[in-house]
Write a structure and sequence with these properties.
Number of domains: 2
Distance between the termini: 24 Å
Number of strands: 12
Strand content: 15-25%
Number of helices: 12
CATH topology of the largest domain: Rossmann fold
Mean pLDDT: 84
Largest sheet: 6 strands, parallel
Strand order of the largest sheet: 2-1-3-4-5-6
Shape: elongated
CATH class of the largest domain: Alpha Beta
Helix content: 25-40%
Structural class: alpha/beta
Radius of gyration: 21 Å
CATH architecture of the largest domain: 3-Layer(aba) Sandwich
Length: 365
């Protein structure tokens, strides 16, 4: 059963954004928490966010705690895991007695236990579980993780069907393709908010920066990007001296293969702070997202926020973000020739502009 976002999050509501099991002060999930908080404030809601290291939620080792509760939930049931969380959850909610809505922004593991515990500890607040990845990425389908994800979602569907104050938030309907769920489950479909800019362009060259950004994993299609650049070098050697290839983010890939292509190349293969990530984004002309599959992409939303040209695979929920954007290009996945053609087309469009200037105004839906 579809529920409108504004019905659950009305103007003037006191919203508590709760980032359970987010371990880092920087990174995609933390950026997402900040973006949701800023959206609530912009839309006239009173939003509070609890820090990742808040002592009322702290365990001695948070990653160990996540897996402990996940395993306990599989063995003894998610309510048993929720009972162990309850004292800390209650201590937290005692500090916010007037809260109307609790938005849980968490990794999928333990999200069912957390939601159940919140419903037990609060008698009035609506609880919204924002699920970013209803299906785990390619790398996370090992060691039984896909089974764990499925069980967590089944428990969440049951809560969203049986409990009047519990709702599941999914970014768009494409993320539930192939997912079985009861039609009575209360679901809010609402896209990732476009985050605000936090950096301005700081570069003095006239090259076209073509970038791949974010955590580097198998599903993100870096091999397709590499092959597309090879085709550009082979077929459009005249354009190659105008292009600077950027890869920024932590992960395992063949950096030497990119450096050997003959483009000017900047590779920053490490975990980036949010400020560093935003600065790279502000310097880009083209953002390339050649994903093999995806649920959603905050990186795409950030590219749109900075007004740069976004070239992305037409997979998962990405088209919901990129299609309405006037500088967005959607392509089939695993098609290096189509990607090469799109990069050439967009690079030529940039050449017709002054590349030393900021690429465009922020885009808001």
């Amino acid at each position: 059963m579809d529920v409108r976002f504004s019905e659950v999050f009305p103007r003037g509501a006191q919203v508590l954004v709760l980032p359970i099991n987010i371990f880092d002060e920087d990174g995609g999930m933390s950026e997402c928490v900040r973006t949701w908080t800023e959206l609530h404030l912009r839309d006239g809601r009173n939003a509070l966010v609890i820090g990742r290291l808040d002592p009322r939620l702290a365990w001695a080792n948070r990653r160990v705690a996540l897996w402990f509760f996940s395993i306990l939930a599989q063995v003894a049931g998610f309510k048993a895991a929720g009972l162990l969380m309850r004292s800390r959850i209650r201590r937290l909610l005692d500090s916010f007695p007037a809260v109307d809505v609790i938005q849980v922004v968490a990794h999928t593991l333990c999200s069912d236990s957390t939601a159940w515990s919140l419903l037990q500890c609060s008698t009035t607040a609506r609880v919204v579980n924002t699920i970013h990845d209803p299906v785990p990425h390619l790398e996370r389908r090992r060691f039984g993780k896909e089974t764990v994800y499925r069980r967590v979602l089944v428990n969440s569907w049951k809560l969203a069907t049986a409990h009047s104050r519990f709702f599941i938030h999914i970014h768009n309907a494409a993320l539930l393709k192939g997912v079985s769920y009861p039609p009575e489950a209360k679901i809010i479909f609402y896209e990732i908010p476009i985050p605000p800019r936090r950096a301005s362009r700081k570069r003095n060259d006239t090259l076209i920066w073509v970038g791949f950004m974010g955590r580097i994993e198998q599903y993100k299609g870096l091999d397709t990007y590499l092959e597309a650049l090879r085709l550009i070098k082979k077929d459009r050697g005249d354009l190659a001296p105008s292009i600077k290839v950027l890869i920024a983010g932590l992960g395992d890939f063949d950096a030497a293969a990119f450096r050997d292509l003959g483009f000017e190349t900047l590779i920053d293969n490490r975990y980036l702070s949010d400020d560093e990530f935003h600065q790279y984004m502000a310097n880009l002309d083209l953002l390339v997202l050649p994903y093999i599959e995806a649920t959603q992409s905050l990186v795409a939303a950030m590219g749109i926020a900075y007004g740069i040209r976004v070239i992305a695979s037409e997979v998962g929920g990405i088209p919901y973000l990129v299609a309405p954007y006037e500088r967005g290009t959607l392509l089939p996945p695993k098609d290096p020739r189509a990607l090469a053609a799109a990069i050439v087309s967009q690079a030529e469009a940039v050449l017709r502009q002054d590349v030393t200037q900021a690429p465009g105004r922020p885009f808001r839906k």
